Amino acid sequence: MNNFINEDKIFDILEQAQSPSTQRVETIINKSLELKGLDPVESAILLNCEEKVILDRVFETAKQIKDSIYGNRLVLFAPLYLSDRCVNNCLYCGFRRENLRAETRILNVHEIREETRALISQGHKRLLIVAAEDTGVNIDYLQDAIKTVYDTKEGNGGIRRVNINVAPMEVIDFKRLKNTGIGTYQSFQETYHRETYKQMHTSGPKSDYLKRLYACDLAQRAGIDDIGIGALFGLYNFKFEVLALLYHAMHLEKEFGVGPHTISVPRIEPADGSDIASYPPCPVSDSDLKKIIAVLRLAVPYTGIILSTRENAVLRNELIYLGVSQISAGSKTLPGSYSSNKKADGQFSISDERSLSDVIEEIATRGFIPSFCTSCYRTGRTGESFMDLAKPGEIKDFCQPNALLTFEEYLLDYNPKLAGKMKDLISSEISKISDPKVRQIASGKMKSLKQGKRDLYF
Ligand code: SAM
Ligand code: SF4
């Protein structure tokens, strides 16, 4: 395993990219509008922009690209934490081994069912399973957990897509994971800077930088072709991390013909029991985060960007315009806390504590269509086949009606109060579907939903 993150090269690029001319920035912005992405040098130039007028241009462009690829859709999900007992000692995390707590747990099948029920009752259809690393959280356990989530039904609802963020495993176990019917496998490198990585991960399997770096390769080799990467912003210089994320994406594209399905941009939050003297070690301001998201949107236009409830509601409302395509809502980061409604510290503190229905009302009022769509992976549109449809822009023909159908389903089953207010928005969106045949079928499916049919999609 060779380290495809060449630190010297990244530092050189960042150094060379200082003070570019306005004309050079303009050329890069125009190139990004062709939706073919940017290389690390071009991205570094944008990351180094500090002037307000230029930054505003970058933000405007990100918004334009987001609109042309993702329209006004925003996918919603919630994390489901299975365990908080960890063999690793990541200094920033409340679950780390040396943070001795009276009680840690690994949810059993019954508890997983109760948590899933609570999430379904809010209206969720897409979950991200999250677990700390422990011998008890092995592939047998994960198989049972995922089966339990998919098998749990409540009223008209059920979970239709489980994504997963758990410790890397061997190819043989990744193959079994794939067979459970997961969507995306996520693994965050946390920091791509090797020395910082070493300082932050003092013991346990995760202390091996290269093994972590190749986690997504192993998942791909096992046939999991929707991969999520990410960095924990605040551990090291954010510009370095963005370029490293791009090199990681390029590596996956070169090796497997398809880059990451998603990039996550978590910022480090204070965590009870973490071992970091002052928070965060390398501060990332709100405007830095805006820049990170906007530059990623320009650099990898077809890769989903995920934003969590680590960020507060006001900032999230700004960031959704800049290129974010998926957000979590109503999240809890302590195992068992959806069904017990316990208000306790989880893995880290959450800044956006709004319920799913509050988030939905807010984004819909802003003209976004909340989407619970799970159609792509259920119809085999994953990995390269997804990108083959996404890149020429054909995916939009499915996504918009699917988003509307899942939103309508949510309103009918979980939020009749909001349904009345959303009638006009939904009919106006249906009337905007450009293909008359798709428009007609979508209207028919809408009617069927009202008559009690469920889970209709293109
Ligand atoms: N244990 C597995 C791992 O570390 O890959 C998977 C789950 S871990 C709970 C999920 C992510 O939480 C980590 O990859 C890390 O980026 C994030 N995280 C940990 N501590 C955090 C903190 N204090 N603030 C924000 N995010 C944090
Ligand atoms: Fe364990 Fe993950 Fe937390 Fe590290 S970040 S201590 S591996 S749960």
From TrEMBL:
<dbReference type="InterPro" id="IPR010722">
    <property type="entry name" value="BATS_dom"/>
</dbReference>
<dbReference type="InterPro" id="IPR013785">
    <property type="entry name" value="Aldolase_TIM"/>
</dbReference>
<dbReference type="GO" id="GO:0044272">
    <property type="term" value="P:sulfur compound biosynthetic process"/>
</dbReference>
<dbReference type="InterPro" id="IPR007197">
    <property type="entry name" value="rSAM"/>
</dbReference>
<dbReference type="GO" id="GO:0003824">
    <property type="term" value="F:catalytic activity"/>
</dbReference>
<keyword id="KW-0949">S-adenosyl-L-methionine</keyword>
<dbReference type="InterPro" id="IPR024007">
    <property type="entry name" value="FeFe-hyd_mat_HydG"/>
</dbReference>
<dbReference type="Pfam" id="PF04055">
    <property type="entry name" value="Radical_SAM"/>
</dbReference>
<protein>
    <submittedName>
        <fullName>Biotin synthase</fullName>
    </submittedName>
</protein>
<keyword id="KW-0004">4Fe-4S</keyword>
<dbReference type="InterPro" id="IPR058240">
    <property type="entry name" value="rSAM_sf"/>
</dbReference>
<dbReference type="InterPro" id="IPR034428">
    <property type="entry name" value="ThiH/NoCL/HydG-like"/>
</dbReference>
<dbReference type="GO" id="GO:0046872">
    <property type="term" value="F:metal ion binding"/>
</dbReference>
<feature type="domain" description="Biotin and thiamin synthesis-associated">
    <location>
        <begin position="264"/>
        <end position="370"/>
    </location>
</feature>
<dbReference type="GO" id="GO:0051539">
    <property type="term" value="F:4 iron, 4 sulfur cluster binding"/>
</dbReference>
<keyword id="KW-0479">Metal-binding</keyword>
<keyword id="KW-0408">Iron</keyword>
<dbReference type="GO" id="GO:0042364">
    <property type="term" value="P:water-soluble vitamin biosynthetic process"/>
</dbReference>
<dbReference type="Pfam" id="PF06968">
    <property type="entry name" value="BATS"/>
</dbReference>
<keyword id="KW-0411">Iron-sulfur</keyword>
